[in-house]
Amino acid sequence: MGARYDADAFGRFSEAIARFLGTGRFLFGQTVFVIGWIIVNSIAAIHHWDPYPFILLNLAFSTQAAYAAPLILLAQNRQDDRDRANIERDREVAARTQADTEYLARELAAVRLALSDVVTTSDLEDMMGKLAKMIADRQFPNGDDSFPDSLSRGESPDSLSQGESPGSLPHGES
User: Fold this and answer.
1) pLDDT tens figures, 16-30
2) Diameter of the chain by CA atoms?
3) Digit-coded pLDDT (tens) for 44-61
């Protein structure tokens, strides 16, 4: 059985390492480690496993840099992929929003056009005022500028003009 490679798991691991390498905690720990290494390898009473110029420490830093750089690049590439996906989703949302806005603008224009033909309260008040003035200025058939009794009972003014007396029934009805 061979080892299986999970690219996503390795990518998450590399991102975690890259995140840790970029923290103040890591820099502080590494600084303390380096100072301790130099002190221990500089004291005369202790056996020096890495005497000055600290070649072994230099090798450790080189190895760390050799692994850290690709891990950081891998983490950056994964972040770029997420950013591209987010940008694409943002573009889709912006396109839908623009389409919705244009649709609503068209609907609003249609409503405005439809409302331009609707009679408003002020239109009705104006017409009622004009009708009241016309009625007030009109000469009634009685001749005394009073409203005929037949009109107050709901009969049409046309029946008065046909020669019927107010209150009488039309021809043929009893």
Assistant:
1) 888 888 889 999 999
2) 144
3) 777 888 888 899 999 999
**Terminus-to-terminus CA distance in the chain, angstroms?**
115
Look up residue 100 and give its two tokens. 């919705």
Q: How many CA atoms lie within 13 A of 14 on its CB side?
A: 19
Q: What is the DSSP string of the chain?
A: -PPP--HHHHHHHHHHHHHHHTSHHHHHHHHHHHHHHHHHHH-TTS--SS-TTTHHHHHHHHHHHHHHHHHHHHHHHHHHHHHHHHHHHHHHHHHHHHHHHHHHHHHHHHHHHHHHTSPPHHHHHHHHHHHHHHHHHSPPTTSSSS--HHHHTT--HHHHHTTPPTTPPPTT--
Is residue 147 a contact partner of residue 140, using CB atoms and an 8 Å limit?
A: yes
Structure token pair of residue 13: 């691991």
Report d(CA 159, CA 152) in Å as an integer.
Answer: 13
Backbone phi, psi, residue 154, to 5°: 100, 5
Long-range pairs for 83-89 at CB < 8 Å and ≥24 separation? none
